[in-house]
């Protein structure tokens, strides 16, 4: 269920269409409503944007997010917008600023954009389009990539972090406004069965059966003929962690780094590393 704040912002967002959007352009993700500079900077900071990043902005409008990412944060990037006039304006601004080699803009439907290169994805799109893009983001972006949205979220995929930014103007209207900036870290996909072993070759092999709900994981760990449910399961980017009962009955903490169909990590009892382990996905 959408919050009252989201509904108010969505209504204001749509009301701004007459001021910013061309009647001849199909902007199904929402009208062009400029993001205040203070919010643009907050989005890029929350994502930890830096020189090694490639920023993709969907619904880039006049290009201000990618332009700031390139000029102030020394990143590279691409903006995608359906309005050719806005694309031309953004590319011209990049040329005037001397950053056209690191900031480019293309005319394209945001639903068709290639996200595989993006390490940071920025969005200021209405909730319906956010929901349409959710599975695309999860499928195309690499684990550990960051997604930042102004005000609107991905429905069931809840943000990892949200900050509120005060801004003196919004929707091109001066006043006392706030904006919510949401951050997600794209999780690796770990649902399924995994066959695990200990790195020292000691102890019986074990099996992990995992279910995933975005950042949350649950499931069972089976070893020595016994199976037990895991607890506190979470995945952030490629980093996985959960607890499960050890042979003594004490709960132990499993951590691992996931790399496609493999994972490897440590087993801890409290702060002490008691074993190293790895697992491969069972087809």
Write up what this structure looks like.
The protein is α+β, with helices and mostly antiparallel strands and 283 residues long. It has two domains: 4-185, Vaccinia Virus protein VP39 (Rossmann fold); 192-281, Quinohemoprotein amine dehydrogenase alpha subunit, domain 2 (Lipocalin, Beta Barrel), CATH 2.40.128.120. It is built from six helices and 16 strands. The strands form two sheets. Strands 8-9-10-12-13-14-15-16 form an eight-stranded antiparallel barrel. A hairpin with a 2-residue loop joins strand 15 (262-269) and strand 16 (272-281). The longest helix is centred in the first third of the chain and has 14 residues, at 84-97. It is elongated, with a radius of gyration of 22 Å. The two termini are 37 Å apart. Residues 11-23 have low confidence and may be disordered.
Task: Give the arrangement of secondary structure elements.
Elements: H1 4-15, H2 17-20, H3 37-46, E1 54-58, H4 64-71, E2 76-81, H5 84-97, E3 103-107, E4 120-123, H6 127-140, E5 146-150, E6 161-170, E7 173-185, E8 192-198, E9 206-213, E10 216-223, E11 226-229, E12 231-236, E13 239-245, E14 251-259, E15 262-269, E16 272-281
Parallel strand pairs: 1-2, 1-4, 2-3, 4-5
Antiparallel strand pairs: 5-7, 6-7, 8-9, 8-16, 9-10, 10-11, 10-12, 12-13, 13-14, 14-15, 15-16
Helix pairs in contact: 3-4
């Amino acid at each position: 269920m959408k919050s009252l704040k989201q509904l108010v912002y969505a209504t204001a967002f749509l009301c701004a269409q007459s001021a910013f959007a061309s009647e001849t352009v199909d902007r199904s993700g929402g009208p062009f409503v400029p993001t205040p500079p203070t919010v643009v900077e907050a989005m890029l900071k929350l994502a930890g944007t830096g020189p090694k990043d490639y920023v993709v902005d969907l619904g880039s409008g006049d290009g201000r997010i990618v332009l700031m990412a390139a000029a102030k944060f020394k990143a590279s990037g691409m903006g995608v917008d359906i309005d050719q006039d806005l694309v031309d304006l953004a590319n011209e601004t990049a040329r005037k600023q001397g950053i056209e080699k690191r900031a480019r803009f293309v005319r394209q439907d945001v639903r068709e954009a290639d996200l595989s290169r993006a390490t940071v994805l920025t969005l200021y799109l209405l909730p319906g389009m956010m929901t349409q893009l959710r599975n695309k983001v999860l499928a195309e972006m690499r684990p550990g990539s960051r997604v930042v949205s102004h005000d609107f979220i991905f429905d069931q995929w809840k943000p990892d972090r949200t900050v509120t930014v005060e801004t003196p103007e919004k929707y091109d209207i001066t006043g006392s406004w706030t904006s919510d900036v949401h951050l997600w870290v794209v999780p690796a996909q770990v649902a399924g069965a995994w066959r695990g072993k200990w790195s020292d070759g000691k102890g019986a092999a074990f099996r992990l059966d995992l279910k995933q709900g975005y950042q949350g994981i649950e499931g069972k760990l089976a070893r020595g003929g016994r199976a037990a449910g895991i607890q506190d399961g979470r995945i952030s980017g490629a980093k996985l962690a959960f607890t499960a009962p050890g042979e003594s009955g004490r709960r132990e903490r499993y951590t691992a780094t996931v790399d496609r169909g493999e994972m490897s990590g440590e087993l801890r009892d409290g702060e002490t590393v008691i074993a190293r382990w790895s697992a491969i996905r069972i087809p």
